[in-house]
Specification:
heterodimer; A: alpha/beta; Rossmann fold; Alpha-Beta Plaits; 2 domains; 4-stranded antiparallel sheet; 14 strands; B: 11 helices; about 80% helix; about 0% strand
């Protein structure tokens, strides 16, 4: 399939006045997991819909396995699987009936559809519920069936659109394990999520999407490193104290961010910088009630990129 | 991955086999989708029950409540009424095609189907064929109800069966008309609200329940030149006797023409989805 499983170049798509995608470009190397991370309305689902051939871009091109998603859509459909918030299973069929139907429609053949349905029901822990109607399934069971339905024909590329939104933690971790297993077996995965924790846990690379464009991309570690190596958090007893500290730190050349009684400072220099910060506060603000030093999370990266804040 | 490498470079000699395989898989995909739709309908039997209850109520209303006030010449009113009831039954049944596709659009099942390597005609073909099967069932029930209410054909079962054949053909054609609507409206209630007035207009301006001669001239001009009226006229010719060939041909021409136009329209709507 080549080195690049999925590639999008300058995709644009508007729905009436709303510009859902505004020149989105991304690439998923074969056998890797790319996490497309962004808030509601940032264009994640539109991007997946175009790559999965259910929507046409207004301009720009995209390929899956080297095949064009518009002009070679019929061939693209043979290598992709799609699961997520907008691709459903039938509530009035049983889990087994759903999988067999989708298997046959995925052209794996009648017998193979039966075999694969049983295998997948088993590996997604749905074997005991297999002959119950899906309308009686819990949200977690329905999502697992949904992902299983995308795998009937062993797709080389899997698209997952917010696979764990609305799931309880246990179901979420179970689904994460399934995705990790697929990735280990060589499936290329493009996964959208609103959860930074999920991108951090699953993705080899993360593309942060904002207003229909990729704002930044890299491994979770790279993004965090680019943002800074440590984050200091100083908490004060009162808001006025925090404000005084904010002024003192800013005049000493730091870039503090104040939220109520707390102050956050990002640093590229490491935890040794704490000494200098405390010296800057000395005599200009009350002592903080607590000081914490932590590694930056993807939340920090994400917020700084999407709120127009300054990334280091 | 070998299929990807080979498929675009088929040598001409294998085109015939490839085309044959394409037709075979289109038929099998259509059958799979139709099976799914029938199973879904059997598991939500309320819809099936309501599809039958409405025409039964119409039989009771027109046969016993209004029938005494409606005068038709040369036949019992119930024999005049039943061809109209059959036409009305399948016309309202066709609304189910719009509602069903609209529901699949809303739940997201259509998105999944559209990203599967299945024949594109299967979603529409499977839906209309399942609706055809449902029509056959409901029409059979209505025939029984008609007989219970005193409906008798002086020309025996052959005329009735031929008339029911026309009814089912008409039902299938008009289903395709509502398929385009269902693909455009992702709210089943809205799809139903849009489809029902069309059916009402066609059924009640036709001679389904009252002779067209009772209507004012301007309404007759519309009412007697539309497919439901053509169907009812042909049914009566077959059931009540008289020269039928001309009326049957007109009804078949309507159904055939509608089928071709509506199927092309629906296929176009389906292939343009997502643009």
């Amino acid at each position: 399939m080549g080195d690049i499983a999925v590639e999008a170049r300058s995709l644009r798509k508007a729905f009436g006045e709303v510009q859902a995608l505004n020149g989105l470009s991304l690439a998923v190397p074969t056998g890797s997991v790319l996490g497309l991370l962004g808030p509601n309305g940032s264009g994640k689902t539109t991007a997946i819909s175009i790559l999965a051939t259910s929507l046409r871009p207004d301009s720009g091109t995209a390929t899956v396995g080297g095949l064009d998603v518009v002009t070679e859509a019929a061939l693209v459909r043979r290598v992709i699987g799609l699961a997520g918030q907008f691709a459903a299973v039938d509530p009035n069929l049983t889990g087994r009936e759903n999988l067999r139907l989708i298997g046959r429609l995925s052209q794996v053949g009648r017998r193979q559809a039966r075999v694969r349905a049983d295998e997948l029901l088993d590996s997604f822990g749905l074997d005991r519920a297999a002959d119950r109607l899906v309308r009686g399934y819990s949200g977690g069971m329905r999502r697992r069936l949904d992902v299983a339905a995308a795998l009937l024909h062993r797709p080389a590329v899997l698209f997952l659109d917010e696979p764990t939104t609305g799931l309880d933690p246990e179901s979420r971790f179970a689904l994460w394990d399934s995705v990790r297993g697929l990735a280990r077996s060589g499936t290329s995965v493009l996964l959208t999520t609103q959860y930074l924790e999920e991108a951090d846990a699953l993705a080899d690379r993360v593309a942060i999407i904002s207003a229909g464009q990729v704002a930044d991309t890299g491994t979770p570690a790279e993004l965090k490193a680019r943002f800074g190596t440590v984050v200091f958090r100083l908490d004060f007893a009162r808001q006025e104290a925090a404000q005084a500290a904010h002024i003192a730190l800013a005049s000493a050349g730091y870039r503090p961010q104040c939220d109520g009684v707390g102050i956050q400072v990002r640093s590229a220099a490491g935890s040794g910088e704490l000494t200098g910060m405390l010296r800057a506060l000395d005599g200009r603000a009350p002592d903080p009630v607590s000081v914490a030093v932590r590694e930056p999370t993807l939340d920090d990266v994400f917020l700084s990129l999407t709120s127009g804040g300054e990334a280091a | 991955m070998s299929t990807i490498a080979i498929a675009p470079r088929l040598v001409p000699a294998s085109r015939v086999t490839a085309a044959a395989r394409g037709v075979a898989s289109a038929l099998s995909d259509t059958a799979d989708v139709a099976w799914r739709n029938l199973l879904t309908q059997l598991r939500t039997p309320q819809a099936l029950v309501f599809a039958t209850v409405q025409p039964v109520i119409f039989v009771l209303l027109f046969r016993y409540a209004f029938g005494g006030a409606i005068h038709v010449t040369g036949t019992n009113y119930v024999d005049f009424l039943m061809p109209g009831i059959f036409a009305q039954t399948v016309a309202f049944g066709a609304v189910g095609t719009a509602v069903g596709l609209s529901g699949d659009l809303r739940t997201g099942i259509l998105v999944r189907f559209r990203t599967l390597p299945m024949a594109r005609i299967a979603v529409l073909g499977g839906r209309t064929i399942a609706d055809l099967a449902r029509n056959l069932l409901v029409v059979a029930v209505m025939t029984g109800v008609g007989f219970a209410a005193g409906f008798r054909s002086p020309h025996g079962a052959g005329g009735v069966l031929a008339a029911l054949g026309l009814v089912v053909a008409f039902g299938y054609a008009i289903s395709w008309g509502f398929a385009s609507l269902g693909l455009r409206v992702s709210d089943p209630e809205a799809a139903q609200a849009a489809a029902v007035p069309v059916v009402f207009l066609l059924v009640f301006t036709s001679a389904a329940f009252v002779p067209a001669s009772a209507m004012p001239g301007w309404l007759q001009a519309f009412g007697t030149h539309q497919p439901v009226d053509a169907l009812v006229t042909a049914e009566r010719a077959l059931i009540l006797g008289g020269p039928a060939a001309h009326d049957v041909l007109i009804s078949l021409a309507w159904s055939g023409g509608m089928l071709v136009v509506f199927a092309l329209l629906a296929a176009r709507t389906y292939s343009r989805m997502g643009r």
